[in-house]
Specification:
6 helices, about 180 residues, alpha+beta, single chain, seven-stranded antiparallel sheet, Alpha-D-Glucose-1,6-Bisphosphate, Chain A, domain 4
Length: about 180
């Protein structure tokens, strides 16, 4: 999901990651990043689709492959795994695979997961295993859903802060892609 998309983007696009890491932050931005380094990261979007359709987009194989990844499977149960890859034709066992463990869910309301395996070249190997993501789905009427993504567990270390900055950009991109998917 959001973690899956971001990890793959990061692993497959070193140039984008390096550009973000090399960016010189102004003092105000540096102070804000330090002050919020341990706080949950919250991103949301209003999607033009009913909750049941958004739920399917996140929690079914057909759903995740329709907008999020090239290959993927999901075993929707507590402790089940979501395995994904952006590599077309992946057998979901190689170095390109991301695995997220399902921590809990409340159908059509909430879905929580934690990354348990990253692509081989993922740079935030320690920090990623300390965070988890909770997605909330709030109906805003019969054909609109507010999707809220909360990523928690950041500890304020440099690696964790870099991961938080990465998710700050990437979570918004992923929700923007979800919005675009349902505008079709």
């Amino acid at each position: 999901m959001i973690i899956t998309h971001l990890i793959t983007t990061l692993a497959m696009s070193g140039a984008i990651v390096n550009q973000g890491q090399d960016k010189v932050l102004d003092n105000a931005e540096r102070m804000l990043n330090t002050a919020t380094a341990t706080q949950p990261l919250v991103v949301s979007a209003i999607v033009d689709a009913p909750v049941k359709d958004i739920w399917k987009a996140y929690t079914t194989e057909a759903g995740i492959k329709s907008w999020m990844v090239a290959e993927g499977t999901i075993d929707l149960k507590v402790g089940g795994l979501m395995r994904t890859s952006y590599k077309k034709g992946s057998d979901l066992t190689g170095p390109d695979v991301i695995e997220n463990k399902i921590l809990s869910f409340d159908p059509e309301h909430m879905f929580a997961m934690q990354t348990v395996r990253t692509p081989q070249n993922f740079p935030y190997k320690k920090a990623i295993f300390d965070v988890w993501t909770v997605l909330y789905f709030e109906s805003m009427g019969p054909k609109k859903t507010n999707v809220i993504c909360r990523t928690l567990g950041f500890d304020g270390t440099q690696e964790s802060t870099n991961l938080r900055l990465f998710f700050m950009r990437g979570n918004k991109i992923e929700l923007d892609e979800l919005v675009k998917h349902f505008k079709k």
